[in-house]
Amino acid sequence: MGWLKKVFESKIGPTPLNEYNFRTEVTEYKGPVLVDVWGPGCQPCQRLVPTIVSLANKYKGKVKVCELNAAEAPKAAGKMGVRGTPTIVAYSNGREVARVVGWKPENYFVQLIETEFAQELDEIEAGKLVLEEPKNASEEDGTERDSNSVPARPKGNKKALKKQLKKKRQQQRNATN
After folding, report:
1. Which of 32-36, 40-44, 131-135 has the lowest mean pLDDT?
2. What are the Cα distances from residue 147, in Å, to 124, 130, 138, 176?
3. Bridge partners of 66?
4. What gap in Å lies between CA 86 and CA 45, rounded to an integer?
5. Total-model pTM
């Protein structure tokens, strides 16, 4: 049973994105990023969860794998031009390089990563490109995460985001008056 425990302990989940950290985590990030845009109640999205978790583990330290709940971050999803879920978008140095809509098997995404990020992966292997250390997601965006919890979908964060957004809008109104 010890080997099984090691397998589950070593799992990490994708980095959760929201309206506030999308720019810093994706568009300003210097390196390859894979973003899974999902929606609650979306069955193909749920089928994709193990694939995204597997990719996050397989490419840990090489490709930043993130997830964005389209229902909780509609502006970020809109900026990405997402019209349906699941949508997986690949970014290289803040620029979109590939987009996949709908469910696909894991080997499809492995091939996409290996072809679209070939140069970056080679530079990382050679030590020419050093990526930023992943931040602790709970410090970044207030989501509840446990190192053993996979997948790491944001929990109870919707109210906090709405409250922050409402406060920001009120400050903007007060500044214009």
Report:
1. 131-135
2. 25, 24, 11, 44
3. 15, 35
4. 5
5. 0.70
Fold for the domain defined by 2-176 = Glutaredoxin (3.40.30)
The 10s digit of each residue's pLDDT in 41-71 is 899 999 999 999 999 999 998 999 999 999 9
Least Cα distance to 8 among 151, 133, 109, 107 occurs for: 151
Q: Helices 43-58 and 106-116 sit at what angle, rounded to 10 degrees?
A: 50
| Token couple for 126 | 């050679």
